């Protein structure tokens, strides 16, 4: 697997901010944008999309992953998450699992008052459950 593109946190966060502007969050008013850097250097955006039946809402991180997969991408380097919360907003548990599924080594960039914080998907989901945890033939 190739090294991939250089991660520019500021540029990726700018993409996440642009995605955040498209968020559909009429209930929580908590708009989230995500920008997913693929190994080929392309960037795929996602935003949260709420539903009046709250359980049907989809987070920005999972929207970005879905958008990437539908466009043929499955090899990811980093994801930036942008919200209005100055302390930074880490991905929720469901998003952590989805990020881990595709790339435990994925760099997760969260915007903070001081700039940004970086952590791997594996650090966000210690002892994560992945395809290697299935019995042979079940993956």
Summarize the structure.
The protein is of the alpha+beta class and 139 residues long. It has helices at 9-20, 60-70, 93-102, 121-124, and strands at residues 33-38, 43-47, 76-82, 107-112, 115-120. The protein has a 5-stranded mixed beta sheet.
Model description:
This protein has helices at residues 9-20, 60-70, 93-102, 121-124, and strands spanning 33-38, 43-47, 76-82, 107-112, 115-120. The protein has 4 helices and 5 strands, in the order H-E-E-H-E-H-E-E-H. Strand 4 and strand 5 form a beta hairpin. The protein has a 5-stranded mixed beta sheet with strand order 2-1-3-4-5. The mean pLDDT is 94. Helices cover 27% and strands 22% of the residues. It is globular, with a radius of gyration of 15 Å. The two termini are 21 Å apart. It is α+β, with helices and mostly antiparallel strands.
């Amino acid at each position: 697997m190739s090294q991939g593109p250089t991660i520019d946190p500021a540029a990726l966060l700018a993409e996440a901010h642009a995605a955040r502007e498209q968020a559909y969050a009429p209930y929580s008013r908590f708009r989230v944008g995500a920008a997913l850097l693929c190994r080929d250097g392309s960037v795929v955006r996602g935003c949260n999309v709420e539903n009046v039946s709250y359980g049907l809402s989809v987070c920005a991180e999972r929207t970005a992953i879905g958008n990437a997969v539908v466009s043929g991408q499955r090899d990811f380097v980093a994801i930036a998450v942008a919200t209005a919360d100055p302390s930074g907003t880490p991905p929720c548990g469901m998003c952590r699992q989805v990020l881990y599924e595709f790339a435990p080594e994925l760099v997760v960039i969260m915007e903070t008052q001081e700039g940004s914080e970086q952590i791997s998907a594996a650090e966000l989901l210690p002892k994560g459950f992945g395809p290697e945890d299935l019995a042979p033939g079940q993956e």
